[in-house]
Input
Amino acid sequence: MASSKETARCNPEPPALNSSKEMLQHLLTVELDRLEVARRIEKERDIVFPETTVIIRDIQKLNAAIEGYDMICDEVEDVSIFD
Output
């Protein structure tokens, strides 16, 4: 990107949530790292980046998807074919 003349833009679309739980957890880790950097820069420069809100939205969606995986797994484990 160092040679790019275009301004970097955030993706208005959240990450796809139909990936494996492991991939969603990896993406969540990446987004949490991005949030940490964005917040540090905001504090250093005393500004607010609109992109930080997008990062937070993506974290919320990823977290909800991961919790959904866990809920589905819990429900499957609670079902017994011998009931």
Q: What stands out?
A: The helical segments are 21-45, 50-78.
